[in-house]
From TrEMBL:
Organism in which the protein naturally occurs: Hucho hucho
Transmembrane segment boundaries: 9-33, 159-178
The keyword Transferase is assigned to this record: no
Listed InterPro entries: Ig-like_dom, Ig-like_dom_sf, Ig-like_fold, Ig_sub, Ig_V-set, Myelin_P0-rel
Name the record gives this protein: Ig-like domain-containing protein
UniProt superkingdom: Eukaryota
Localization of this protein: Membrane
Signal peptide bounds: none
Matches recorded under SMART domains: IG, IGv
Protein's membrane topology: Single-pass type I membrane protein
Length: 249
């Protein structure tokens, strides 16, 4: 009797050790969900919230994905997306019509896309995946989304357009005006009807009429010498006429 009890105790000890080894070397299967810690986006853009999972069991129709949102100001999480063989999109709230399913359970994808991101979307997004019989592990993962206002930036192409449509026409107009000032058009009809302020009327000294036939680009020195020469000629003619009248008397 004593030997049988001793044998039974030894068998129990061996069975207990065997169970302990099985639990240590063969852990219970579980699921692992992962996602980026932070995601940055610009207001108005479409932002992808990535979520992947690994499971020792094949994804079946019992697998489910849930997304929840907690505002940046705090408060309890708000569930807004659910997948379980079918996609259940939000029908009200701030995410209504703005969520797109990007997941593929067969490839371990449970991602979504948020359309037309706004500043009110800033907060923490939690992805939860359940795939029975994997009931242990890390079935959730969180991502902090930061949406910033869009900054207007001037690119080199914009500067080139501004130079082409503003500075280039201005330069052309300036060159045209300078050319017109330096080289005025020679119109014969205008030249014949033009009368210089220093031109004399008919009946005065004929010598001064030569100024009108000269080119308009004469310098001040040339005009002064011409006037001086004509003035001396007029004085000579006046003296000669006076001398002739005296001689006749």
């Amino acid at each position: 009797m004593g030997r049988q009890q001793h044998t039974s105790i030894c068998l129990n000890i061996v069975l207990l050790l065997y169970l302990m080894v099985c639990f240590v070397l063969c852990p219970v299967s579980g699921i692992t969900v992962s996602s980026p810690a932070e995601v940055h986006s610009v207001r108005g853009d479409a932002v992808s919230l990535t979520c992947t999972f690994t499971s020792t069991s094949r994804a079946t129709s019992h697998m489910s994905v849930d997304w929840s949102y907690r505002p940046q100001t705090g408060g309890p999480p708000q569930a807004f997306f659910h997948f379980s063989a079918l996609v259940f999109l939000p029908r009200d709230g701030q995410f209504n019509g703005r969520v797109k399913w990007l997941g593929s359970p067969a490839r371990g994808e449970a991602s979504i896309q948020l359309l037309n991101a706004s500043l009110s979307d800033n907060g923490t997004y939690t992805c939860s995946v359940r795939n029975p019989p994997d009931v242990h592990g890390f079935p959730t993962s969180q991502t902090v989304l930061t949406v910033t206002p869009k900054v207007l930036a001037v690119h080199f192409s914009d500067v080139a357009v501004i130079l082409a449509f503003i500075l280039l026409p201005s330069a052309i107009i300036t060159l045209a005006l300078l050319g017109r000032m330096c080289c005025p058009p020679k119109d014969k009809s205008q030249a014949q009807g033009y009368q210089s302020p220093i031109e004399v009327t008919p009946g005065e000294e004929p010598g001064l009429k030569q100024i009108h036939s000269k080119e308009k680009n004469m310098t001040c020195c040339h005009i002064y010498l011409l006037i001086y020469k004509n003035h001396n000629t007029a004085l000579y003619l006046m003296d000669h006429s006076n001398y002739g009248s005296r001689y006749q008397r």
